[in-house]
Amino acid sequence: MEKNLEFILEVWEEIKTFFFELANFILKSLHISFLKLEERKGVVVTALYRKRGKLSRTLSHSGMAAITTLGVMLAPLIAQEFPGKAVNPWEISAAPSVLSASTDDPGIDTQISSKVRDSIIDYEVQSGDTVTLIADKFGISADTIRWENDLTRDTIKVGKTLKILPMTGVAHTVVKGDTVYSIAKKYDADVQAIVDFPFNTFTNDETFELAIGQTIIVPEGVMPVVSATPRQRQMTPNAGTVTASGQFVWPTQGTITQRFSWYHPGLDIANRSLPPVVAADSGRVIYAGWDASGYGYMVLVDHGNGYKTRYAHLSQIMVISGQTIGRGAAVGKVGNTGRSTGPHLHFEIYLNGVRVNPLGYLK
């Protein structure tokens, strides 16, 4: 058994040696052949170069004859493969026109133009729509929609038709005495923006005169603050010595139209019937009057235990600064003064100077 194995190994080694030597022989032979070919190629190239003038005409004529012969042979085959009609080279055809086109590509759809619209359009409220969603859809501010449609809340009835301005701002109907300057001042806007809006027209393009009754778009305009003087007198008597309970009652009746958030640090309660507004807890009135920052007519009450409450946009104030007031006593009435889009109470609660969510404290 061992002898057979040794024999097989010896034969295997001899076979390996044979093929190794054979490979070396082939490589050497190829190398020598290539060297000889290079030498002979050089001789041929040199000879052709020396006789290039004599052979050029012969070679060019032979090449042209070969190309012509090939063309004649292939022409019938090409004509059968690509049939067509006779063409008159002197006939000038009209430019082709597309009569119809279609595509099955589901990725192709219609894009709404971003070009500024030239007029106010109607929009029918769909299911799930809110003022904010509609504003985003048309690329304008929510206030623009509220102002144009006299809305006081973000939710709107399905099927209601809204007027949508072509851009953020205010639509103004011209009355006698109006000028672009007075309109710009009224809506805190730029005169040049009104003039430059491409779809605002003037009876005189040099003086920018306006026609009574025409509608002017005021870009980036803001509806003026209602600042009519409310009835303000002390109708709620001084409550004497009071102590806050730390428990807050609802300041008025109505519908919550906007909740507390980082950009709206209060609670909006709307009610068109303008009901009374009451103190959420006992305390001392530290301010009662007009606030120019946007609250309109408001009342601020310090409850003496780290809490303060604010009652804003009032139509009537029933207390005076410095008096005390008991929980549930009237401080005023719901209104629409200041930066407001409709009759509502804006209610805030402060804890150690920081505004907190009223819904976490009202009982």
Automatic annotation (TrEMBL):
Residues 121-164, 170-218 form the LysM domain. Pfam families: LysM, Peptidase_M23. This is LysM domain-containing protein. One of its GO terms (molecular function) is metalloendopeptidase activity. PROSITE patterns: LYSM (PS51782). CDD domains: LysM (cd00118), M23_peptidase (cd12797). InterPro entries: Cell_wall_metabolism_enzyme, Dup_hybrid_motif, LysM, LysM_dom_sf, M23ase_b-sheet_dom. It comes from the Bacteria. SUPFAM superfamilies: Duplicated hybrid motif, LysM domain. It comes from Candidatus Woesebacteria bacterium RIFOXYD1_FULL_41_28.
